[in-house]
Amino acid sequence: MFLKHKVLSSQLQSLKAAVHAIESAMPEDALVGAWTKSAHKLWVKRLRRTSTMAEFLQVLTDFVGAINEDWLIGCSIPLGSNSLLEEIISCFPTMPQTSSAVALWLVKLDDLIAPHLERLHSEKKQEMCARLKRSAC
Q: Which residue, 15, 37, 112, 120, has fewest beta-carbon neighbours within 10 Å?
């Protein structure tokens, strides 16, 4: 006797994992103030429950709406990648609603924010090392 669980396509599972990884790596100031812990928890539940591309796109749209555009602009300035930023912001509402198009969009978003997140991580690491050195003295 099998339970009636819907088997998700590997593409949808991969997209869900990718957007969750990107969202969880973003610092608080990358998301608008309305993206509180309770809103975040609800969003994660909705993401986990999505079983169709249409449902996933709605959850992704909510996440994109919560991204602080000023923060994104700050990510693009050091890289000189304003064209990538414009492409990410302007093409989201009109991109084809296919797993391939969404995957490409997520890769572009990740390319834009990854260097900024790596820099933040590196700064935090250096801060922790400095604290440890001070406390050891």
A: 37
